[in-house]
Specification:
By secondary structure, this protein is α+β, with helices and mostly antiparallel strands. It is about 25% helix and about 25% strand.
Amino acid sequence: MVEVVIDGDTVTLDSGETIRLAGINTPEIKSGQPFAAVAQQYLEQRVHNRQILVENATDPVDPHDRTLAYLYTLDGESLQLALLEAGLASVIVIAPNDRHLDEYAAAETRARIAGKGIWSV
């Protein structure tokens, strides 16, 4: 279960494990970037105090010792895709964690063309 939504691309589970959403990057709250709080709230509305499905990335640990994973709601909605479609994230793929690159890039392009979220500034 998700206990804390740290920002738009990082959550902490009730087990204490910190998970960084693989394949995307959202604006940083600490830097005060536009849409940072919106991305955090968007993710929080979908996962806070809820069970999620976790698909570990190929290389599942980042330099900050966080688990890199693809997250899904229990009904199968990709949280990465949802953030990208809303214009609240951009694609950032670091090999070998490129499992969903094509669909993520397509979602980012749609949001960019529509001028959603971070693509509106």
